[in-house]
Specification:
The chain is of the alpha/beta class. Helices cover 49% and strands 9% of the residues. The radius of gyration is 24 Å and the shape is elongated. The structure holds guanosine-5'-triphosphate and magnesium ion.
């Protein structure tokens, strides 16, 4: 599904905005209001601010893909998101130089294809980039294009960078490497093909260096279409690229990007950070000598934590998902009961917990719940992750 483009609808509408439901926002505002009254909270302001950016102010990752027409930008995004959302082999519904909201079955990204045609950026494109600056800029060329000289692609990259501060990360990609000789070889490629890929990457790297562009090392990718895949030509370089893209996203775009890109390492890293922050907050709240300071705060915090981990894995943002996990760990009631009741039950599972939740129990409880949710939703890290 291709969403509203900033050029075609309300010019002030932001394409990468994620509208969270009002329940979720209200819950977080209430939690913040309570947390604000907890002594010792001052030291945790950074944790709270970081959680707010990560979860409640989340937005889509914004990627600009620069290249000549036909270099394989749309097909790359389709492959990254694992769905045939964008038309390939022609501009299709996508308007070059404008943000598009792309949704592949809930995996969402803000995407702009910019044609390297030697022209300066249009006023409309400059406005779109100023309003929503890219997190990552992909600088893309095929080996043939590199051989002819990728000057126009690099010029366009320099124009997009402008004096942008902070500068978005440039990731140069050598595209369609499956077409290099011998073209019929599927990954893992034979030596001859690997040498050809390396030589083309080096040539591209030299051109980037000569243009004084600070960028990642050049990566080779291949995203053959369905027909070619049927002939045994597999995708190449995508697994690493997904992780790299997810890694480069700012805090607000991390949750949506790791979810959209299906990047297992990034998902796990984000989930672990989230669980750590929630555990620290739980301990602080439980230590606070105020009457509301236990389950009223800790339960919604734990609920948010489990929901976020589920969301990272690609599940919908709803209470049913929490219930699914609760049932999996043997908590009676599962989806049918509220989070507070659930937490009371969880507390009962923790040895030594009496009528009062002690600080260590609250912290350990939150950490345990978080780890269990990571295991359930993100899988066992000991198992090999699928590669493509
Ligand atoms: N063999 C092979 N073909 C590819 C690859 N990437 C793209 N193609 C084909 O190249 C053509 C152009 O791909 P697109 O993804 O539409 O290119 P684009 O950069 O979006 O260019 P526009 O069409 O101008 O938007 C299509 O026919 C794709 O099927 C690749 O990695 N390997
Ligand atoms: Mg395209």
């Amino acid at each position: 599904m291709l969403g509203p483009m900033s050029g075609s609808t309300d010019p002030h509408e932001s394409v990468s905005k994620v509208t969270t439901d009002s329940d979720e926002q209200d819950g977080w505002s209430q939690l913040l209001a309570v947390l604000d009254k907890v002594p010792f909270m001052a030291g945790l302001k950074r944790d709270v601010a970081s959680l707010t950016r990560l979860v409640y102010r989340r937005r889509l990752g914004r990627i600009v893909a620069i290249g000549h027409s036909g270099t394989g930008r749309s097909q790359l995004l389709n492959a990254l998101l694992g769905g045939a959302v964008l038309q390939v082999g022609g501009a299709g519904q996508l308007e070059p130089g404008q943000w598009a909201w792309v949704d592949a079955g809930g995996k969402r990204m803000a995407w702009m294809e910019l044609d390297a045609n030697g022209e300066t950026l249009s006023a409309q494109t400059r406005r779109a980039l100023d309003r929503e600056p890219p997190d990552v800029v992909l600088v893309m060329a095929t080996a043939e294009e590199v051989e002819r000289g990728a000057g126009q692609v690099l010029e366009a990259a320099i124009r997009v960078l402008g004096r942008r501060d902070p500068a978005p990360r440039l990731i140069p990609l050598l595209t369609q490497v499956d077409r290099l000789d011998p073209a019929e070889a599927a990954p893992p490629f034979p030596v001859q093909k690997r040498d050809a890929i390396r030589a083309a990457c080096r040539a591209f790297q030299r051109q980037l260096d000569e243009a004084n562009l600070v960028a990642d090392p050049v990566r080779a990718v291949a995203t053959p279409n369905a027909g070619e895949r049927a002939l045994g030509l597999g995708a190449y370089g995508l697994y690493e690229l997904r992780e790299r893209l997810a890694e480069e996203m700012p805090e607000e775009a991390q949750l949506e990007s790791a979810r959209a890109l299906d990047a297992p390492k990034a998902r796990r890293r984000i989930a672990q950070g989230l669980v750590q922050s929630c555990s620290t907050l739980s301990i602080t709240v439980a230590l606070a000598p105020v009457p509301f300071s236990d389950l009223a705060v800790i339960a919604p915090l734990q609920g948010m934590m489990v929901t976020s981990v589920a969301y990272l894995s690609g599940r919908a943002w709803d209470r049913k998902t929490v219930g699914e996990w609760a049932a999996s760990v043997g908590l009676v009631g599962g989806a049918g009961i509220g989070l507070r009741a659930l937490t009371r039950q969880i507390v009962k599972f923790v040895p030594g917990a009496g009528s009062i939740v002690s600080a260590s129990v609250a912290g350990a409880g939150t950490l345990g719940i978080g780890r269990s949710a990571i295991g359930y939703f993100l899988g066992d890290p000991a198992l090999p992750a699928p590669r493509s």
